[in-house]
Amino acid sequence: MAQTRIPTEMQHPIKLYLVVWGWLFVLSTSSYLVDYFHLEGYLRWVLILLLMISKAWLIVAVFMHMAWERLALICAILLPPLLVLVFVAIMVSESNYTLLTRIAFFGWHS
Amino acid sequence: MRNVAENLTGPSGWRGIGADWSSDQRAFKNVSWGKAMMWIFLLSDTFIFSCFLLSYMTARMSTTEPWPNPSEVFALRIGGEQVPLILIAIMTFVLISSSGTMAMAVNFGYRGDRAKTAALMLATAAFGATFVGMQAFEWTKLILEGVRPWANPFGAPQFGSTFFMITGFHGTHVTIGVVFLLIIARKVWRGDFDTGRRGFFTSRKGNYEIVEITGLYWHFVDLVWVFIFAFFYLW
């Protein structure tokens, strides 16, 4: 009871975590530099999203050990949040409508 | 219980999904109920934060007034020079470092290294407390500059309400995480999981898996910050 066995999927060398930690630092610095150098437009948005997704992927896959879980758990946890994208699409359309009516009835900067 | 659970694992890959979900009693074969429940809680928390970020997106997209530029709002004057977003960048590095120490704590926990696990968990808690402290500083600065949930001197009034709501809720999560970490670190330090000491509330013996479950929560807090940093501070 006292001695804990190490589950096979948890026997990683500490080095793995240090490497991921280093990568997260590099990626965070890059996203900060996107703002620091005032990148604008699509280049800015694409870079922000790419860096965000890479960081999220590293944290979930390695730090939260999702890469070593069974597919049944991976799908149960990671697929439902994708539905949020549908919600995003609905709210983008709704926001555009609200903005349009505000401009039509009140004008800009009112 | 864990031994029984681990022997139940069936085929892997896509066939495994079918086998796991159509099987008797439990769908998550080699995951204890504690870990599965934490994952499901985190999934529900994902939806809460998604709703906050979505309402922020809706407010920002539908306002006719210009949105305040976060790069300038969150700039700090260091040595007579305005450095954009610097406090937020430091907060990001602090939180990532706390995730690194937490991941190593989980690893040492499974090796049964009591001292290193407790020390790394305390380091994680210290990073977390630092993060909350910096957030308190940021809030104070913004409130002194006149940012309110209903108005602010920089532009669209919705900026204040979304800022306080999103960062406030995240900060609350970090604070709860720090308390959670300290409680578990104390148990690890005392050797509860080696001596089989029974829990105060549950009256059951715990094991080092609780370090991993605490870690899942902590990494999630870091994960949410990744999205807040991208969408609220950088966008």
Task: Describe the fold and architecture.
The complex is a heterodimer of chains A (110) and B (235). Chain A has 110 residues and is mainly α. Chain A folds into 2 domains: 12-77; 79-110. Chain A is 70% helix and 0% strand. Chain A contains 4 helices and no strands. Chain A has helices at residues 14-36, 41-63, 71-78, 84-106. In chain A, helix 1 (14-36) packs antiparallel against helix 2 (41-63). The longest helix of chain A is centred in the N-terminal third of the chain and has 23 residues, at 14-36. Chain B is built from 9 helices and 2 strands. Chain B is globular and about 55 Å long. Chain B has a two-stranded antiparallel ribbon with strand order 1-2. In chain B, a hairpin with a 2-residue loop joins strand 1 (76-78) and strand 2 (81-83). The termini of chain B are far apart. Chain B has helices at 2-7, 13-21, 33-62, 70-73, 86-110, 114-144, 158-190, 192-195, 209-234, and strands at residues 76-78, 81-83. Chain B has 2 domains: 1-30, no CATH class; 32-234, Cytochrome c oxidase, subunit III, four-helix bundle (Four Helix Bundle (Hemerythrin (Met), subunit A), Up-down Bundle), CATH 1.20.120.80. Chain B is mainly alpha-helical and 235 residues long. Chains A and B meet through helix 1, helix 2, helix 3 and helix 4 of A and helix 2, helix 3, helix 5, helix 8 and helix 9 of B.
